[in-house]
Amino acid sequence: MRSAATPLADMPGQADSRLRRYLGYNMKRAYYEIQTELSQALKPLGLKVGSFAVLSAIVDSPGLKQSALAQALAIEQANLVQLVDEFEARGLVKRERASTDRRAYALFATRNGIELQRQADAICTQLEAGFLAGCPEEDVARLHKLLQHIEMTLKGRRP
Predict the structure, then answer these.
(1) What is the CATH number of domain 34-157?
(2) Residue 22: closest CA among 108, 142, 158, 150
(3) How far from 105 is each of 46, 66, 67, 98, 124, CA to CA, in Å?
(4) pLDDT tens, the chain, 159 aa long
(5) Is 76 helix (H, G, I), strand (E, B) or coil?
(6) Would you call 4 helix, strand, or coil by DSSP?
(7) What is the reported pTM?
(8) Helix-helix angle 111-131:49-60, to 10 degrees
(9) What ranges do the domains of the chain cover?
(10) Number of other residues whose CB lies within 10 A of the CB of residue 52
């Protein structure tokens, strides 16, 4: 029981108990915790959660066009251009004119970019293993499948 001096909002699990009934709210709270941990872990590499995602996609899909990357990761084109500029200045990524469309740029990770992505990937893998410790593999696989199902269902409802 809380004392009169302790505001309800300061008591974990109390102020948001109604919201905890909703899957989306629980996903948001879990994502916040994961993102906080991951942001701190990636900081020494000069990466953020979003920039790690962009670098990973470039490493995994050499020659990917900027527009396709923005669409795949649901990133605004202007934000992506700024991030790719930063990666290029750091020697992590290079742009080349796309052979099929001279107006578009294809993206390629450099050796340094590939190495940085591998380091960041190892950090992510380790963190994920830590917060999933004790969860049966079947539950983790089921969670992946469920989250992907929710994403595809909601995407399918949009025009």
Answers:
(1) 1.10.10.10
(2) 150
(3) 24, 6, 9, 5, 29
(4) 444 455 444 556 578 888 989 999 999 999 999 999 999 999 999 999 999 999 999 999 999 999 999 999 999 999 999 999 999 999 999 999 888 877 788 999 999 999 999 999 999 999 999 999 999 999 999 999 999 999 999 988 877
(5) coil
(6) coil
(7) 0.83
(8) 120
(9) 34-157
(10) 21
